[in-house]
Amino acid sequence: MKRTLLCLLGLCALLCVASCGSRNVIHEQTRESRRLEAQGAYDVAKLEVTFKPHQDWEVTEEEWSIWVTGWRGDYKKELMSECYKEMHFIDAAGTATRPVVTCEIYEMDKGGSFGVGGAGFARANVKIVDPKSGEVWYDGKLEGKGSSGVFETATAQGRFKFSVLSLARQIADLMETGSPRKPD
Question: How many CA atoms lie within 13 A of 124 on its CB side?
């Protein structure tokens, strides 16, 4: 009996540790932390979303376009509120004069209703490149987690929004401290 109880307690502890171990950094190719932290101003390119919703999600192209436009505004506002460095928002990376930050969302998951089945996520390629030298200061894939703790996340659109906000907070930390924020 004691042995079974100890095994169950051990299994519970392992599950708790495993659930806390989720990472927001999927893959990092390059991170020049000192340069990122020392930089005083950035050019931030418009958020790109190359992911297209699955047909069974029943989201029209028009709805998706409206959502993406909203996320671009949310992304920009979150960066401005979370990062205290000077930022200039540009439409395309080719017009940058300061190190340019790009974020391209390539995969998304809508999670479940009211958090059942997961809070969803957005995965993005994030790059920071110095346009003068062409040097890559950051190149990595980050994951923004959705949320299931607020009313707005009862819908897929809301969970996606919070995933994008999570990405913005991670990128803000990357620009300020040279390291992306831990998962929310």
Answer: 27
What interhelical angle do 61-82 and 156-177 show, nearest 10?
30
Is residue 46 within 8 A of residue 100, CB to CB? The reply is no
Q: Which residues of 94-117 are buried (b: 16+ CB within 10 A; e: fewer)?
A: eebebbbbbbbbeebbbbeeebee
Query: How many Cα neighbours within 13 Å face the side chain of 23?
Result: 8
- Residue 15 makes CB contacts below 8 A (sequence gap 6+) with none
Q: What is the dihedral of CA 60, 65, 70, 73, to 10 degrees?
A: 170
pTM (whole model) above 0.85: no
37-86 pLDDT, tens digit per residue, is 999 999 999 999 999 998 888 899 999 999 999 999 999 999 999 999 99
- In the chain, the domains with their CATH numbers are 23-177 (3.40.50)
- The CA-atom distances, in angstroms, between 21 and each of 14, 17, 167, 178 are 11, 6, 18, 21
| Short-list 96, 101, 105, CA closest to 139 | 101
Q: Is 141 helix (H, G, I), strand (E, B) or coil?
A: strand
User: For residue range 88-123, what is the model confidence (pLDDT) as tens digits?
Assistant: 999 887 888 999 999 999 999 988 755 455 788 999
Structure tokens belonging to residue 65: 């376009």
